[in-house]
Amino acid sequence: MYITPNIGPMVCRAYCSSRGEIMPKVDVSKEYVQSAQLNYMKILEKENSDRVAKLLKTRSRNRYTALGLGIFVICIYAYSINSVKQEHFLDELDES
Predict the structure, then answer these.
(1) CA gap 15, 24 in Å, rounded
(2) Is the dihedral of CA 85, 88, 90, 96 positive or negative?
(3) What are the backbone dihedrals phi and psi of residue 44, each rounded to the nearest 5 degrees, phi first?
(4) For the Cytochrome c oxidase assembly factor 3 mitochondrial coiled-coil domain, which residue ranges apply (predicted)?
């Protein structure tokens, strides 16, 4: 049984050294590891996966918020352009 970190773009900083080396894998079946250490590793692995899931959820929400704000700004811009065109059209009607 290998306990390996989930290496991804967000998590790589935690598991990679400054030289880009990845932490070595631990073979639990070959090396002597106490049950307390195994339990601790499982707890840390679960906490890390929860943290990554929370960060991914936050990233997704941020994208939806940015998309909503971008659409809102584009709508205001389109409304402004449309209202300026209508004012110009009304000025031409008044002149004739």
Answers:
(1) 10
(2) negative
(3) -65, -40
(4) 49-95
